Amino acid sequence: MTVEPRKSSFVPALGAHWLTALYDPLTRIWRAPSRIRRSVIASLALEPGMRILELGAGPGRLACQIKQAHPEVEVEAVDIDPKMVARAQKEAATRGIEVAFRTGDMTSLAREGRYDRVYSTMTFHHLEPAAKTAALAAAHGVLDSDGHFVVADFSRPRDPLQWALFAWIQQPLDGFANTRPHRDGRFEQALRDRFGGVRSAQVWRTIAGTIESFVCTP
Predict the structure, then answer these.
(1) Contact 89, 97 (CB under 8 A)
(2) Which of 58, 77, 84 is closest to 119 using CA atoms?
(3) Sequence-ordered list of residues with C-beta below 8 angstroms from that of 16, at least 6 positions apart, any chain
(4) Which of 7, 68, 161, 170 has the most CB atoms less than 10 A away?
(5) pLDDT over 60 at 59, yes or no
(6) Of all residues in the chain, what percent carry a pLDDT higher than 70?
(7) Rounded CA gap, 102 and 1, in Å?
(8) Which 3-state string (H, E, C) describes 61-115?
(9) CA 94 → CA 64, 88, 97, 101, 123, distances in Å?
């Protein structure tokens, strides 16, 4: 069953649906995403037989990279944008691997069993504040009791330059209301409010602002 996107709950890649086609080529050029993907994979600490879920699959590159490196892991991935899901499915077919991509709302995940790992990269800043809270609750709800949730996204700027870059570049693209919780630390606090254990895994200073990855346990 597919879930139609709720237009009020997210901002599409690059801020507009008509720019979605440019998202994948641009992220291939920008070096930060590849470093973030490697860090997230390391933080997942995957083992054979695990069942994992990605929230906000985008063009599917990370899910496919994980499946190729860990073919014994069952990989599922959801994205609210059908165009992104179609791109992700094409990516998996091109690589000749099997990843269960589907259109779905990460704020209300189907309770189809539990996952050993849940992860998300550069997706939460697209969500409205209420949707961020709902998505964290959904991730917590499908996470196994001894699993963990890994999330990488924009975080508190670590210096004035990072603050300015985020304010001038990223916030106009994705909306000030959606991105403000990442700038002022409320997103990190929301993680700590929802999960029993939260640790910062890595911080990156980028041309669009500060990005940070967190490892969260129930």
Answers:
(1) no
(2) 77
(3) none
(4) 170
(5) yes
(6) 84
(7) 9
(8) HHHHHHHHHCCCCEEEEEECCHHHHHHHHHHHHHHCCCCEEEECCCCCCCCCCCE
(9) 10, 10, 8, 14, 24
Q: Which amino acid is at 133?
A: T
- Tokens read off for 53: 């879920």
* Alpha carbons 57 and 75: distance in angstroms, whole number: 11
The DSSP symbol for 18 reads: G
CA distance 85 to 216: 26
Domain spans of the chain, in order of start: 13-217
Q: Which of 113, 137, 119, 147 is nearest to 190 (CA)?
A: 137
Residue 88 to residue 201: CA distance in whole angstroms: 27
Helices (H), the chain: 20-29, 32-44, 61-69, 82-95, 129-142, 160-165, 171-174, 176-183, 186-194
Report residue 113's pLDDT band, with 50, 70 and 90 as the boundaries: confident
* CATH code for residues 13-217: 3.40.50.150
Cα dihedral 79→85→87→91 (10° resolution): 90
- What would the two tokens of residue 22 be? 């440019």
Q: How many CA atoms lie less than 13 Å away from 13 in the CB half-sphere? A: 23
Mean pLDDT across the stretch 53-71? Answer: 96
Three-class secondary structure of residue 163 per DSSP: helix
